[in-house]
Amino acid sequence: MQNPYVPIPVEVAKIITEVDTKDIKTFRLAFVNKKDEENFTYMPGQFAELSVFGKGESPIGIASSPTQKGYLEFTVQKAGVVTTALHEMEEGTRMGVRGPLGNSWPIEFLEGKNIVVVGGGFAFTTLRSLINYLLHADNRARFGTITCIYGARTPGLLIYKDELEAWGKRDDIDLTVTVDNGDTTWKGKEGFVPTICKEVAPRSENAVTVICGPPIMIRFTLPVFFDLGFSKDNIITSLEMRMKCGIGKCGRCNVGSKYVCKDGPVFSLAELDKLTKEY
Ligand SMILES: Cc1cc2nc3c(=O)[nH]c(=O)nc-3n(C[C@H](O)[C@H](O)[C@H](O)COP(=O)(O)OP(=O)(O)OC[C@H]3O[C@@H](n4cnc5c(N)ncnc54)[C@H](O)[C@@H]3O)c2cc1C
Ligand code: FES
Asked: What is the pLDDT of residue 276?
């Protein structure tokens, strides 16, 4: 059995600067060994520990979809020691990945349902993985309608712009992109995510919403979904806690009786209600 603390060797194959402030980049990582690539089976919503030699590790959500073969993608905001070292890397650099870790978005639960994806800022990463998974030709027929509402503070802070454009042209996903403050070039919607959710007003019958974003966005978005008739079982989110081991051993990330790294990071609001209010 492989030692879960030993990172898998990968190489930075591509770096994409996502935002005009240049502090959010997507890293495409290619496996050094074919066997590691075959063994790394994951689902949307899972995360991995990215390991920069001599600096340390950081938990980061997997932004690629398992339907994309041959590489993993992670979108990382520059925050401190490890993420700054990542941002200074060049294509061709070797680093490590530990994972996949945690649970995933509940794909089986979503089957046959209408899905409403709500994202804010760069917390859109594992939602992007989910959308690409749902839209894949092998999977699309298993799910009902897909509605996506995604917002950022400014047009320059929207991530995955090419993909947003491509999704906008499809007729099997209803996408609304919004910014808090537009500029002279912005032709899309302006308004906070909760306001736009109210405007779009997705129906709650046979529907599940999957929400990820800054805490303030989530705080104001939840009442909108309650008013629309979504129950706490049908509102799913992902928690970001401080983590160390990522495998339920060190006790750094517990919320009540649960380890966010192992039992989460994905929980329904109904599940979170049963835990203590530490999150
Ligand atoms: C499950 C999970 C998924 C995540 N996914 C992403 C992602 O897709 N993209 C991304 O950019 N970030 C993501 N994060 C947050 C990311 O792990 C932290 O920003 C990163 O570990 C900071 O490491 P550092 O060494 O650069 O910063 P440090 O030098 O350790 O700290 C710098 C600053 O960041 C704060 N910080 C450190 N860790 C966290 C944390 N876990 N949550 C909030 N603040 C923190 C510190 O308080 C400090 O202010 C995720 C976190 C978790 C737990
Ligand atoms: S990070 Fe160690 S138990 Fe969760």
From this structure: 65
- Residues 240-271 have pLDDT tens digits of 888 999 999 999 998 888 999 999 999 999 99
User: pTM (2 decimals)?
Assistant: 0.95
Give yes or no for residue 278 having a pLDDT over 70.
Answer: no
pLDDT band at 275 (very low <50, low <70, confident <90, very high): confident
| Best residue among 240, 242, 243, 266 to mutate for probing ligand 1, ranked by most atoms within 8 Å of CB | 240
For a pocket test of ligand 2, which of 259, 263, 278, 279 has the largest count of ligand atoms closer than 8 A to its C-beta? 259
CA dist., res. 100 & res. 144, Å (int): 28
Nearest in space to 128 (alpha carbons), one of 220, 11, 22, 212: 212
φ and ψ at residue 262, rounded to 5 degrees: -110, -50
Residue 229: Cβ within 10 Å count: 12
Task: Name the residue with the closest Cα to ligand 2, atom 3.
Answer: 248
